[in-house]
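Review box. Two proteins, two foldings.
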Amino acid sequence: MSSFVVTDALRETLAVFDRQRPGTPLTTTEVATELDSGRRSTFEKLDRLADGGYVATKAVGARGRVWWLPVGSAALVDQLAEAAFLTLDPDGRVRYVSEPAVELLSLPAEPLLGSTVWECIPEFDAAELVPQIDEAMVDGTTTSAELRSARLGCWLQYRLAPTESGLGLSLRDVTERMVRERRLERYELIAEAVDDGIYLVDQTGHFTMVNDAYAAMTGYDRDELLGAHVSLVADEQTVETASEYDELLRAGDRETGRIEADLVRKDGGTVRAEATFAVLTDADGQVERVGVVRDVSDRLRRERTLKRQRRELAALDSLNTVARKVTNSVIEQSTRQDVERAVCEVLAGSESYSLAWVGDVDRASGTVTPHISAPTTAATESLVSDPLSTGPIRRATHTGTLQVTTSPASITPPDGWDAHTDTGAFRSAAVIPVVHEATLYGILCVYTEREAAFSAAERDVVDGLGEVVGQAIASIERKRALMSDEVVELEFRLSNLGSLLGIEMPADGRVEIGQTIPLGGDEFLVYATANDAGVEIVEAAESALDHWESVDLLEAGPDVHHLQVRLSEPPVSAKIAAFGGSIQQVVFADDMAQFVVHTDPGTGVRPVIEVIDETFNTTELIRRRQFTRSEATGPRSDDALQRLTDRQRSVLMAAHGGGYFDQPRRQSGAEIADTMDISTATFHEHLRAAMRKLTTSAFADV
């Protein structure tokens, strides 16, 4: 036993028993709690003390064990450990002082002998020591405490314990331990103050210390983690990687290590964490790994969000470039087919999309017929299908809004594409209504191989393509109709007008609809003339039809009244004009309405008929004829009107319809400007510009 060395760590463990009555058994867990240490490391210290004969032990139950300090052995422990010690009589007088004690106290031995310990050693206070001596003599209580010696400039630990002949007072210089403990306390305060998790792991991979942040991160209580193996919160691969770093750190090949892995929580969930660790050596020479763990879930989410945003910005920049190319391409085309081909080629030739096609919509038959596609290997002759019953094409044609699908097969023809088209690579597709001024010209479908395509920003871009293409087609159709000498005239009759308006139609009522003027958006002005009974029909229409916002009487004549109607959605004349047609005459009389429509033979009459049928479900086509316009000398008035801007044309038509050029005027310039929601100055500016262009055209050859 004399060769056994009692380290500071073992003395701290023995001190736990000093605070108990000699012979009191303690479990390993109780000693670990007193030491604020892990159960495994505490067991190892107790086992070493038992091997040295300083404590006794025995097994309890299948796996338990208790430890105790034998009665009368406290002073012996100090002597065997070669500690500084004194023996005292029951009154506290010094009977013996060891040489190590003389050296430690820096006092000669002779003055100490025979004196009370509080008289000869300044560090002791009788008020504290006398009660402790009484307890030791009466109850056999061992007292252990630390005190600061300003004289010696160190910390002393003393232990007062009963012996067979009196009392034993052992002394130790515990300055290093106290400094270390206070430093550790500061470290622990810091560890608890930070948000990061901090842990200590011994050489066997068991936790010896964790802070509250680490416990919260894992979902376990601190007591559940202390003494547990790291595999409780880490998978096999992570444990193996950490062990490899541990070997490098212990060998001095690295100063720190860092890994990123999932922490396994108590509830079975995981937390993505980054651990930075190093190795520390404790007072017993035991090497432990200290780790600082940070939850990086938010950081990774931010990084993923940033990467996604960068991808989206790059894609959006590319899409804006594509949109500009589409716009520039379509305005250069002279036919509808050229417009549709240009947009398909630009889209399919971009990095964003792989396939594009344009198709006609036939609501009567419930079919869509693709007729232009790019790349051209996707032959369109096999692309006739019936997609209007369900799916995104139906939703797009019925709502007039962009539809996106992650199942491109839902807008693939029944017979599929040809062998050159790799449809398996498509991830999503969009159906874009080709619309202008509420008129549907067809659909544009685009397919992409990109993941997570058609974000909100991308949808805004591609949705605008439908309006760009629709406006280009409408302009071409309108120009072709105006320039053509061949005209198809269609005459329609609407029966049961009174039932539609919910009134008893006056027998002699008559209304003639004149010019329709777009004001922008879905606002329109319509000018009409009516007899007395016809005014009742117009007023009834205002009450029955929600989009008839107001009816104003511009002039009341003896036989004919001039009216102005404000609408909040496109009238049938505006819808027909989108296909290059024009309404020549609309008359309400005899419980009927008759329409005379002129259109270009090249446009076809089907779109016009569809517009009429969709607007009025009791309409019948009563006459159709084709004729040639009479040749006129000089430039056509239609040619001159084409030179006007949309605003100039609207102002000129409003002035004409509102009777501005009549004598006397039915409406002043200020009144017409107010109706059009523009200033009087703006009205006169546009009117003068329109008149200047018309007169220049009229007198061009004079």
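Next protein.
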Amino acid sequence: MNITFQEFLELYDLREEDLQEFSVLSNLLSKEEKETIGKRVRDFVFLYLPRSAKLLYDMNLKNAFSGTIEKFIDVSMLNSQLALTYSNALARIHRVNIDIPPDDFLKDYLVFLKNILDKVKIPTGKEKTFKKYIFFLTAIGFYIAITNIKETIEEIETDPITKLPLHTFLCSNFSELVKKRRTVVLLDLENFKEYNTIYGYRIGNTILSMIAEILKTFFEKDIILRFQNDEFFIFTDKSLLETRNVLQKIRKYLQENTLILADKNFPIEIRLDFTSILLRVENTEFPDPKYLLWILYNKLKDIEDKTFEKMHIVSFSEQEHYLEVFKTMLTILNVLDKNHVLLAVQPIVNLLSGETVFYEVLARIKTSNGIISPNSFINYVNDNSIEEKIDSIVIEKALSLLKENCFDKISINLSFNSLKNRFLWFLSRINDSKDLGEKIVIELVERRNPLHLKSIKDKIETFKKLKMQIFIDDYGTEYSNFSLLKNLEIDGLKIDGAIVSNLGKDIVDETFIKGTLEIAKFQKLSVVVEYLETKEQLKRSKELAKKLDYQDLLAQGYFFGGSVHRTV
């Protein structure tokens, strides 16, 4: 059903004469205050709403965005008819031209309202009018969001393909499901994506329907859900052992009965298998589905070899471990939401001259129980893809240190995820200050296989144009390897501390360091040896550099000073 904005307001008993009163509020905000609100909302978008930020950048609307907000404040206060027209135009642009995600819009709009409330000092006697005005602005936000919904939103609990309940059923019936069942199974169908991609969704949907029917046959009286894509959940009264036996029968059935599906003029042989995670839920309390899902999906992620053993039971000790990790994750997320991230800085020193070249900015998580060391939280951050958020907070605080002239030069860790998703926001922060780039060293951190190297190279080229230096962090471990050195235009490497700690002890690690210095000399790169903590490590580092006549060896570690907390 289409509804005009006028009709929408009438639903909430807001009439034209009410809107006309807003003209008396025109002087409550100065030009400077409106500009500040516009810029703050723009900054919020570029920090927290990357999809919307990219659209604004792609359409060259970065500066126009804050100007649009200033204009909207004016028209909504001075002319109610203009505001009606403007809101309808916003809805059309939002839906058709820009297609900003509705959830992004609502977050952005709520920040706009908060800034209005923070800035306006309401004169005596105008409180009632101001309340109406804020209600009016709130209504506009909901009107635009509703205009974007093309179909009536219904909570669908049945999958139209398999006729099984969906994840919404799990959320709304979780307590009953867990209370009345002994075992839960996460079943992950293998090779489905390949079949779906090669032969199309019709064959893919047929496979899902057939698997659903097989599961219903073997788990006749149990609850089976299609959770997402090629994953199924089974809530059963059977014990762990009984459930395992049934799953083995299903696997045997699939192995002995190749599915034959017709595609146009030729038959397709479908060979299916699955990996399953079994968890005993009998007499176990889970506050909500998130805890259960966390355990099952983390167990699935931890399975190193899925090709040999297909069924895995979550032990009690594993369950306790996953729940402990989950609680730590919730603590970290809570800290990030409240921005309780501390900065620490550590000097990076030239080994030959002894001079400090720059300082690395490090993150520390502050909780009610004290500060969590980086070794305690860094794996959680990396494994659960929230490094973007912590990167953004650290970058914001680190740039403040530079703008306050606390340091001449700093290095900032930037994950490949942040480089991919927060690049435009980061550029906007750099461009706010002149010549800030030449004071920044970017330390690229990658603990997963980096994809789309071409896109990364393009972004690094942009950094280089702003006179930033680029270092590869943790070089020699995981994915911080020779491929990055060979393919990216960098200025330096940081050899991982696990390798540096073996200087004078391990011939392989020492040979690796020597080889890295030879390459760095040829490529005219700087090298930082991390975690340098002993006189022996310092001595061997200098000897290697001297033997190769390598002049640009830097060091970082407690031998030159530990990390020092800085307040921003």
